[in-house]
């Protein structure tokens, strides 16, 4: 504004100067110069007054606007100060912020909880050992309820077979540490809760140091050794232990070392390793294990809130198939208990893997029930399988697992039926069909097969029948012999040779397309009988065995929408 007015004054002066110069030719310069100076002085004085007036008006308006803005900002700051003082007063009066009261209002309304109960939850700390099917739902509900601090211990990474039941993880988490993925999602769920991840395996060296910082411990593991470790650590640290377990469609739950017995009081000695089954071997249904995990969170919250009817000295049994709950009373504290009795013999943590005879993790636990000469490696079995000498493989997994994948020359007799007289007779007859053959037993990891061999050795005692265990079972086979098994277990028809299989598949596709062209054009270039013979020869040369009917039907059935053709290629008959 100021610059524009200066330009206007300058322009006017220039006009006067132009008039003055023009008049120089007509009049005497001495006469015109004073007049010109006076005119310029008047003009500048007049415009200067106008400029100063307008500048003053502009400054006043701008200052008024600034004052208005400052008053509005002051009003906002005063309102914030009042809210802050009110929030501080609420915290002093109730121990909770306004946002916390609003967030947890539905459970604060409960007379058993109220403001005091919510403050207890806010100040609580809960340790979850195991971030799997039990630990995930427990962590979700504890975080949602407003527990102040949650620790999560797990040494494992997320795998795709976790996702059907471990709801803290997504496909994008595969290969990442479970505790990191869990902490990330729990912080996203409730940023007020402090989540501490421990990517470690709990053992006798670190258990006491970690557990002492928490009020309640949740056992969400899947092995006996860790159960005894947690029990002893909780007794020595005087912490309650919420223990849960789930397998297949069933689960159970109890609370130990909380005005009642500890785990050792009920089970002074661990069970034989061969009698223990985890979800990796026996399977588990997601909603069943999730139910137990949620109930573990419930019991932990009841302990924090000092609510009655905690499952101490009781065992809750859940049957998911019948949707039935049953509660039974356990024995009371054992005065002769080694850890919490009147005269304890344990004052520190021990080697629990040695004590239980099993590994303290959920991975491939390895039993050693047989002598070395009673077992063969998967490499030895593969040599036997590729050779000409006949053999029989007894697969002791469940029928469902057997249907998913199995090796050739195997029969399915589940471990639970291995002592059945009818099954023993079946095995005996199959073995005696051929005078000389190898007989082996296999399962998913080489544990159940050892149990089966033990049972069959007793059943065939006094005979010349010899049965050996395949070390490592199906897992070892898939890792060391055929990495595509069991995803592409039909490769076994090609003796585990991927190149042979690909060549075979390519030739079959070419011949099948050739037949398709014949069908479309109705021109019999080559008879189906000839193609059958060609495919049979290819099959025989590449596999030296018959191809399964499942594999045949998968190859020769076509449905193109506009043309549906089923190619009947009887390979077995052709061979």
Fold and architecture overview:
- One of its GO terms (molecular function) is adenylyltransferase activity.
- Residues 60-87 form a coiled coil.
- Residues 387-486 form the Rhodanese domain.
- It is a single chain.
- The protein is an alpha/beta fold and 575 residues long.
- The chain folds into 4 domains: 1-86, no CATH class; 124-356, Rossmann fold, CATH 3.40.50.720; 372-481, Oxidized Rhodanese, domain 1; 496-574, no CATH class.
- It is built from 22 helices and 15 strands.
- It has helices at residues 2-23, 29-94, 98-103, 105-108, 114-122, 135-145, 178-189, 207-211, 224-237, 263-266, 279-282, 286-304, 352-356, 378-386, 399-404, 421-432, 448-459, 473-480, 498-521, 528-543, 549-556, 571-574; strands at 125-129, 149-153, 194-198, 216-219, 241-247, 250-256, 314-319, 324-329, 375-376, 391-395, 410-412, 438-442, 468-470, 557-559, 564-566.
- An 8-stranded mixed beta sheet has the order 3-2-1-4-5-6-7-8, sandwiched between helices.
In short:
Keywords: ATP-binding, Coiled coil, Cytoplasm, Membrane, Metal-binding, Molybdenum cofactor biosynthesis, Multifunctional enzyme, Nucleotide-binding, Transferase, Transmembrane, Transmembrane helix, tRNA processing, Zinc. By secondary structure, this protein is of the alpha/beta class.
Query: What is the number of domains?
Result: 4
Total strand segments: 15
Structural class, from helix and strand content?
Answer: alpha/beta
* Low-confidence runs of at least 5 consecutive residues: 487-497, 540-575
The main sheet comes to:
8 strands, mixed
Strand content: 5-15%
CATH topology of the largest domain: Rossmann fold
Question: CATH H level of the largest domain: which superfamily?
Answer: NAD(P)-binding Rossmann-like Domain
Using the alpha-carbon principal axes, give the shape: flat
By CATH reckoning, the class of the largest domain would read: Alpha Beta
Transmembrane segments: 498-517, 538-558
Domain Rhodanese: 387-486
Keywords: ATP-binding, Coiled coil, Cytoplasm, Membrane, Metal-binding, Molybdenum cofactor biosynthesis, Multifunctional enzyme, Nucleotide-binding, Transferase, Transmembrane, Transmembrane helix, tRNA processing, Zinc
GO molecular function, one term: thiosulfate-cyanide sulfurtransferase activity
């Amino acid at each position: 504004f100021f610059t524009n007015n200066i330009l206007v004054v300058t322009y006017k002066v220039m006009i006067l100067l132009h008039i003055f110069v023009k008049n120089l030719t007509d009049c005497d310069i001495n006469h015109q110069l004073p007049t010109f100076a006076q005119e310029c002085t008047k003009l500048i004085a007049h415009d200067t007054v106008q400029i100063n007036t307008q500048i003053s008006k502009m400054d006043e308006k701008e200052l008024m606007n600034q004052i208005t803005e400052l008053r509005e900002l002051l009003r906002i700051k005063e309102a914030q100060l009042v809210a802050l003082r009110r929030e501080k007063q609420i915290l002093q009066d109730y121990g909770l912020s306004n946002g916390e009261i609003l967030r947890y209002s539905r459970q604060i309304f409960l007379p058993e909880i109220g403001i005091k109960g919510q403050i207890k939850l806010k100040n609580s700390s809960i340790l979850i050992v195991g971030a799997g099917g039990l630990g995930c739902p427990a962590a979700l509900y504890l975080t949602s309820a407003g527990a102040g601090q949650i620790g999560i211990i797990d040494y494992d990474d997320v795998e795709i077979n976790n996702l059907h039941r471990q709801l803290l993880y997504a496909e994008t988490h595969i290969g990442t540490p479970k505790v990191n993925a869990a902490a990330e999602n729990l912080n996203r769920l409730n940023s007020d809760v402090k989540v501490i991840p421990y990517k470690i395996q709990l053992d006798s060296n670190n258990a006491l140091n970690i557990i002492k910082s928490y009020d309640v411990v949740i056992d969400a593991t899947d092995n006996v050794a860790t159960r005894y470790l947690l029990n002893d650590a909780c007794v020595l640290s005087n912490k309650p232990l919420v223990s849960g377990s789930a397998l297949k469609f069933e689960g159970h739950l109890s609370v130990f070392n909380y005005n009642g017995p500890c785990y050792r009081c009920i089970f002074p000695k661990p069970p034989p390793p061969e009698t223990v089954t985890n979800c990796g071997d026996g399977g588990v249904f997601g909603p069943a294990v999730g139910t137990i995990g949620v109930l573990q969170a419930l019991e932990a919250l009841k302990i924090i809130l000092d609510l009655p009817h905690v499952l101490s000295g009781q065992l809750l049994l859940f049957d998911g198939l019948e949707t039935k709950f049953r509660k039974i009373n356990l024995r009371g504290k054992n005065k002769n208990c080694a850890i919490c009795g009147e005269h304890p013999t344990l004052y520190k943590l021990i080697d629990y893997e040695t004590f239980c005879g099993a590994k303290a993790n959920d991975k491939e636990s390895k039993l050693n029930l047989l002598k070395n000469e009673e077992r063969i490696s998967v490499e030895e079995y593969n040599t036997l399988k590729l050779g000409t000498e006949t053999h029989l493989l007894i697969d002791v997994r469940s029928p469902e697992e057997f249907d998913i994948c199995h090796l050739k020359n195997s029969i399915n007799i589940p471990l639970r039926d291995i002592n059945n007289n009818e099954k023993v007779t079946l095995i005996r007859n199959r073995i005696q069909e051929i005078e000389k053959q190898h007989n082996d037993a296999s399962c998913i990891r080489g544990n159940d097969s050892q149990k089966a061999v033990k049972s069959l050795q007793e059943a065939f005692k006094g005979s010349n029948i010899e049965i050996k265990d395949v070390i490592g079972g199906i897992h070892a086979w898939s890792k060391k012999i055929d990495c595509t098994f069991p995803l592409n277990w039909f490769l076994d028809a090609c003796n585990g040779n991927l190149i042979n299989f690909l060549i075979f598949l390519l030739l079959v596709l070419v011949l099948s397309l050739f037949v398709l062209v014949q069908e479309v054009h109705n021109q019999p270039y080559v008879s189906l009988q000839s193609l059958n013979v060609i495919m049979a020869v290819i099959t025989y040369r590449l596999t030296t065995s018959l191809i399964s009917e499942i594999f045949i039907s998968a190859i020769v059935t076509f449905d193109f929408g506009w043309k549906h053709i089923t190619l009947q290629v009887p390979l077995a008959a052709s061979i």
